[in-house]
Structures are given as structure tokens and as C-alpha cells.
Amino acid sequence: MGRVQTVLGDIDVKDMGYTMPHEHILTCPQGHGSKVEEDHLLNSYSKAVAMLREYKADGGGTLVEATPKTWGRDAVGMKYASEATGVNVVACTGYICQEHGMPDDLGDWDIERVVDEMVKDITVGMDGTDIKAGWIKCGTAYLHITPGEEKVIRAACRAAKKTGVSVHAHTTIGTMGLEILKIVQDEDFDTSRFAVAHVDRNPDLWYHRKMLETGCSLIYDGPGKAKYYPDSMRVDLLKHLVDEGYASKLMMCNDMGRRSHHKVYGFGPGFNYIKDVFLPRLIDEGFDEQTVHDFMYANPQKFYEMRDPE
User: Fold this and answer.
1) Which of 62, 54, 84, 52 is nearest to 17 (CA)?
2) Which domains does the chain have, with CATH numbers?
3) Cα–chain-centroid distance for residue 293?
4) Which residue ranges are tagged as binding site for Zn(2+)?
């Protein structure tokens, strides 16, 4: 069977159901970005459960959790929330961009140390538990890639080859995607197993097309966040890319990583904005219903399916 590795163990990819590929239910980024720490602090197990219950009640099946260790990854909390709700949660190993959390001495590490850490999280368990990660995260700064970030990208590709999981990258304001992909190609990693996130913060159709030409997937995770451009911009970009034949390489989610994004913390719009508002808008704007369905079902299932290790 095709499988994906969740915090509760392996499941058949067909059992993923409706899937959002880059979200957050528990974070604790103390020491990073002091101006936004409180808003980024998602530290309540009961609220994490409430988030997932709302998600499931609206048809959610799987949530890909994008919180790395240095941003407060909580393996025990993710398992608890998944068990309490029945929502599949796929955790990550790896690191976000250097600005938002890497070990201070990572630049001095041998790359194989980074690889081994990632492989252990996937094959043995995270943070001293037997709860395993199911994908690898990397990330880059705004308009440049630090040496530490490049090391993590290369390590992610090597660890993914050893374990069969997929990789996706945080980008800062949607920049450096092509440069990331050049490193991925230099590592001779299968770009169909690599995705670039936050691309709709840099709404450059030519740039998105050039990334897709490498064979990668793109994650549009800004719907509902008008401060990062109105949804009309995302609709227009998606129309062009679907018309050009890239529908199978596009995934959608909200990237709700702040208290101010979540109804359970007294704000909004919450995880269900995509399903309740954005997807119906796509259909109203003329998108084929099967294409919209695939954004949330077939595409993430194919992307996160584990492959045979090399």
C-alpha cells in the first residue's frame, strides 16, 4: 500500500482524506522573534484538540503539522490531539530558516550530523519518544540563503533519500524558491518529492511557472490573509497555472501559525476558511470541481506518500 507516516503510525494514503499540507496546532518559539512571540505561542493542548475537532467536523482528514523542533515541536501533544480527535497528524523534522530557529552552532556541524538527526526523527522517533516524523522541513531567508540554510536543504535531500519521505521548504515572503530548487537538483533529489511553500506572498506568475517547470509542487497557504494580498490575486495565479497544465502540482492550506489566526483563541478565520470560503470561491470563479477536489485530496496524497529508500 502507499503509506504516509503519522504521529500514530502508518496509514494508507487513501485514508488521508481532505488534507492541508502546512499548518500549526502547537508551537512555542521562545527566544525567536520576541516581537511576535505571544501571538506565535500555540501552547494549549485543549485548544489544539478544539482546532482539530472543528477541522474534522468540517470534513478534515489529515493535517500536516509544520512546526520544527526549534519552533516548539511537541510530539507528545500532537499525538494526544490526534488520538483525541481522529484527525491524522503528520509531523516534521528539519528546521525553518535561520532567523526563526536553528541551533547556534549548526554552522559548525558536519552535514552528516544534520542528516542523522533527521533520519532518527523519521525512523526512531522525535525528542526522545517513539513518535515519528513523516516529512522534512527546510527554509530560507528573505532574498538570500545562509550557509546554515543551504546545509539544511542539502541534508534534507539526503535524509529523504534514506527514508523515503518528502521535503518542503519555508520561504520568506515567497523568495528564493528557484535558488532552493537549484540546490535540490544539485543534490540529485527527485523534485517531484519537493514542494515550495508561502509562494503566494510573492505573486509572480513567471516565477511560479519557473519553479513548477522543475517538477516540484507549490503550496498556496495565504488564502484568508488579506494583508498578504487579496484572494483575487491567488485565484488569478491559480487559473493561469491550471490552464498551463500544473493542476496536479498545486496544494492549498491556511498556514495558521498565530493565535490571531484561530477561532479557539478568540480570533479567526481558523482552519476551515479554505473549505468554507476559498474552495467555493474557486468553483464560483469557474474552476472545475474535480480540479479543486484534487488540490485537497489527490495532490497531497501523492506528494506525502512515502517512497522506497534509495
Assistant:
1) 62
2) 3-304 (3.20.20.140)
3) 19
4) 22, 24, 137, 170, 198, 255
Q: For 52-66, what is each residue's pLDDT tens digit? A: 999 999 999 999 999
The CB-side HSE value for 74 (13 A sphere, CA atoms) comes to 18
Known binding positions: 22, 24, 137, 170, 198, 255
Rounded-to-integer distance, Cα 120 and Cα 122, Å = 5
| pLDDT for residue 34 | 44
Cα angle 94-95-98, degrees, rounded to a multiple of 5: 155
The C-alpha atoms of residue 248 and residue 75 are separated, in whole angstroms, by: 31
The secondary element (H helix, E strand) that includes residue 203 is none
Pair 122, 133: CB distance under 8 Å: yes
Q: Which three cell numbers stand for residue 229?
A: 494580498
Q: Concatenated DSSP letters for 6-71?
A: ETTEEEEGGG--EEEEEE-S-B--TTS-GGGHHHH-B--HHHHHHHHHHHHHTTEEEEEE---GGG
pLDDT tens for each residue of 166-225: 999 999 999 999 999 999 999 999 999 999 999 999 999 999 999 999 999 999 999 999
228: cell is 498578504
